[in-house]
Amino acid sequence: GDSVTQMEGPVTLSEEAFLTINCTYTATGYPSLFWYVQYPGEGLQLLLKATKADDKGSNKGFEATYRKETTSFHLEKGSVQVSDSAVYFCALALYNTDKLIFGTGTRLQVFP
Amino acid sequence: DSGVTQTPKHLITATGQRVTLRCSPRSGDLSVYWYQQSLDQGLQFLIQYYNGEERAKGNILERFSAQQFPDLHSELNLSSLELGDSALYFCASSVLQGATEAFFGQGTRLTVV
Description:
Radius of gyration of chain B: 13 Å
Shape of chain B: globular
Distance between the termini of chain B: 31 Å
Number of helices of chain B: 0
Strand content of chain A: over 45%
Helix content of chain B: under 10%
Strand content of chain B: over 45%
Radius of gyration of chain A: 13 Å
Oligomer: heterodimer
Number of strands of chain A: 12
Largest sheet of chain B: 7 strands, mixed
Number of helices of chain A: 0
């Protein structure tokens, strides 16, 4: 079935370090791909998205490129901040369906 | 603030009981989704309503039910509660069918004791 696989956390980094969180997917069609972020005590917020192959989503310094050939959508940021500490969820939605399928989430901890 | 309001924020109840969780979607959003977030299962899609009608069903137990009212708010009813139902329950809303840009509420944390 359709699924999303994320790297297990926690990912622990020092401030200004480079971040990569891996995400791969399995889907029968051509999904849209998303990264959501959950800050402590809050709901999920859409961070970025890409709707077709080779699209790059970007927001707040985060980027992810839709790679159809490797079925991946890895999240990157060049210089993380303490305020980026949160749980990051990769998700997919198939065309014309009504649900998001989420990965298990990756906790990021950034220390000063 | 996403514009999606969930009440209550916290709920503690005993096994065997029934609870109702409430969600008010963003103004203008016709679709409402319910998700369950637990430590062992991650974030699981439960059910979706669009403009008052059930649109999609996920991993929702028979003990759970939901509805969307004419004013578009939604309620998730959980009955015969078990310890394993303890989780964070999220509501999300979007304008159209298809959760391409869903906005999430802050969740209701349910603890069954």
